[in-house]
Write a structure and sequence with these properties.
- There is one protein chain.
- This protein is an alpha/beta fold and 247 residues long.
- The chain has one domain: TIM Barrel (Alpha-Beta Barrel).
- It has helices at residues 16-30, 47-54, 80-85, 96-101, 106-119, 131-135, 139-150, 177-195, 214-218, 235-243, and strands at 5-9, 37-41, 60-63, 90-93, 122-127, 159-163, 203-206, 225-228.
- The protein has an eight-stranded parallel beta barrel, surrounded by five helices.
- Helix 2 links the parallel strand 2 and strand 3.
- Helix 1 (16-30) runs parallel beside helix 2 and helix 7 (139-150) packs across helix 8.
- The structure holds 1,3-dihydroxyacetonephosphate.
- 1,3-dihydroxyacetonephosphate binds at residues 9, 95, 164, 169-170, 206-209, 227-231.
């Protein structure tokens, strides 16, 4: 049985004061929930305050990105060690916005996952197709390529996969639970074939997840959680997603 896993990706939103305000309101809303893993991934500048505030809870802290080099002259970049010292347990890697706007390739994603795992960080690996790729029947081919490239020579312990169809991100257009489930099933089959028994790997769905649609998504056999953008920015909304996420 895979434990539900709900993660907030705040993207480039919330400064330090807003982070503090959110977490102080959010903690009491989810107090007592022990059967769902919860993670918050704020911007880098909010990691320290978030880590401090989340310390007495079992809510995990994640980063949205990191560099694959361990240290060095890489102006503006953040290393795995820096994330660990800031209190992160986890890092999101290969988000479609990183791939699209910052030219992250599967090869770069692969290097980042290797460094993250070597340092002891858990990983949420994002994959997903564009609208044009889905409409031209190339979804599974795109996923094959992303999974093979991103996970080359990597074992699945400590790795969660987030399936985020690009056409569903921030558009209000959620994949139907059936389409999401079919695609998750394909990803699990790929993992079983290429990485051994993937029965315990969690696969999150991401793309316009909200309190109103979480239950029907989670009712699907292959959906183990969600990676939430917009609807994770308000404490009540994110808490209601978590409450609706029980299997
Ligand atoms: P939205 O929930 O805003 O569609 O964003 C999804 C996402 O990209 C999470 O990483």
């Amino acid at each position: 049985m895979r434990r539900p896993y709900i993660a907030a990706n705040w993207k480039m939103m919330k400064n330090l004061a807003e982070t503090e305000e959110f977490i102080n309101s959010f903690i009491p809303l989810v107090a007592g929930i022990s059967d769902v893993d919860i993670l918050i991934a704020p911007p880098f500048t909010s990691l320290s305050i978030a880590s401090h505030l989340l310390l007495p809870t079992n809510i995990k802290l994640g980063a949205q990105n990191m560099h694959y080099e361990e240290n060095g002259a890489y102006t503006g970049e953040i290393s795995a060690d820096m994330l660990l010292f800031a209190g992160c347990s986890t890092v999101i890697i290969g988000h479609s916005e990183r791939r699209q706007y910052f030219n992250e390739t599967d090869e770069i994603v692969n290097k980042k996952i290797k460094t993250a795992k070597k340092k002891g960080l858990e990983v949420i690996l994002c994959v997903g197709e564009s609208l044009e790729e889905r409409e031209s029947g190339r979804t599974f081919g795109v996923l094959d390529k992303q999974l093979a490239g991103s996970l080359k020579d990597i074992s699945m312990d400590g790795v969660t996969v987030a399936y985020e169809p690009i056409w569903a991100i921030g558009t209000g257009r959620t994949a139907t639970p059936e389409i999401a489930n079919e695609t998750h099933g394909y990803i699990r089959e790929w993992l079983n074939k290429n990485k051994g028994n993937a029965g315990s790997v969690r696969i999150q769905y991401g793309g316009s997840v909200k309190p109103e649609n979480i239950s029907e998504l989670m009712a699907q056999s292959e959906i183990d959680g969600a990676l939430v953008g917009g609807a994770s920015l308000k404490p009540e909304s994110f808490a209601n997603i978590i409450k609706g996420a029980k299997k």
